[in-house]
C-alpha cells in the first residue's frame, strides 16, 4: 500500500480548510501535518524545505512537494486520489468547477 500524502495545513486558512474537508469527505487518506500560522511555523527553515513559498496549504507525496491548493486538487485528481464528485472527470463538468476555482481567487479570497 502506498504511503499516504502528507498534508500541511492550518484551519485558520480557508483554502486549507476546504482541502482538508474535501479529502476527508472523499476518503482520500492523508497524514495530518498541522502548521500553526499563529506561531509562525510556516516561516521555519524546516517548513521552507516543504514549501518554498512558506504558506499553507502544501502536500508531500514521496519526493514530490506541491503548494497551492487548487494545484493540489488537480494533481490528486489526476492521480485518482480525489473525489470525482467534487472534481469531475467530464471535460464540461470539470471546466465548470475550474471556472469557479479561478474566479474565487480574486472574488472571494482577496476580499
Ligand atoms: N493561493 C494559496 C494561498 C496560500 C496562502 O495565502 N496561505 C495563507 C493562509 S490562507 C498563509 O499561509 N499565510 C501565511 C503567511 O503569509 O505567512 C493556496 O490556495 O494555497
From TrEMBL:
It comes from the Eukaryota. GO terms for biological process: glutathione metabolic process. It holds the Pfam family GST_N. InterPro entries: Glutathione_S-Trfase_N (IPR004045), GST_N_Theta (IPR040075), GST_Theta (IPR051369), Thioredoxin-like_sf (IPR036249). Residues 3-84 form the GST N-terminal domain. GO terms for molecular function: glutathione transferase activity. GO terms for cellular component: cytoplasm. SUPFAM superfamilies: Thioredoxin-like. This is GL17151. The lineage of its organism: Eukaryota, Metazoa, Ecdysozoa, Arthropoda, Hexapoda.
Amino acid at each position: 500500500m502506498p504511503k499516504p500524502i502528507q498534508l500541511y495545513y492550518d484551519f485558520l486558512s480557508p483554502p486549507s480548510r476546504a482541502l482538508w474537508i474535501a479529502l476527508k469527505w472523499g476518503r482520500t487518506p492523508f497524514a495530518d501535518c498541522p502548521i500553526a500560522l499563529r506561531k509562525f511555523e510556516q516561516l521555519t527553515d524546516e517548513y521552507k524545505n516543504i514549501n518554498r513559498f512558506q504558506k499553507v496549504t502544501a502536500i508531500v507525496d514521496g519526493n514530490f512537494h506541491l503548494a497551492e491548493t487548487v494545484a493540489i486538487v488537480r494533481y490528486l485528481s489526476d492521480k485518482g486520489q480525489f473525489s470525482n464528485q467534487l472534481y469531475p472527470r467530464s471535460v464540461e463538468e470539470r471546466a465548470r468547477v475550474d471556472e469557479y476555482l479561478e474566479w474565487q481567487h480574486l472574488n472571494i479570497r482577496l476580499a
